[in-house]
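Lecture 7 notes: from sequence to structure.
We start with the chain below.
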Amino acid sequence: MNMRKGISPLIAVIMLIAFTMIVAGILAGWATTFVTTQREELQFCSKAQLLIQRAYYEPETSTNGTLTLHVLNTGSVALKGFSVRTIYKKNASVIHINSTIQPQDIKTITVDITDPNNLDQVIIQSVECRGAQDMITRYDIQGIGF
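Predicted structure tokens for the same chain:
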């Protein structure tokens, strides 16, 4: 007759509790780091704002030209990295600009426009803080608007 012995129920319960405590400790450490990072990012981005002060279009040919944007950082933190989205009636394009705008500073950004007659909107947005953005319509652009 072959008798096998397993671990006692008391040892099994102690091992399960120990395993649960280890997993809880790991998750608590991760959650603390995650929440701290999110809080710091939120505090930083609450101080970020962009404003397009002026926009004008300079035609090069009848079908394309250059859009110049004067962007003011009205916030109290420096912002670096931007995306400029040009929205046309049937499509859109995005370009990324690796630049920094200091607080209360103005940066000139130029964008190639391929179809000025069908341009609807231009949106500039900080890559760092997605809430720091501004938008203009074709009517706000000198040289295109009516």
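Points to note: The two ends are 99 Å apart (CA to CA). The mean pLDDT is 90.
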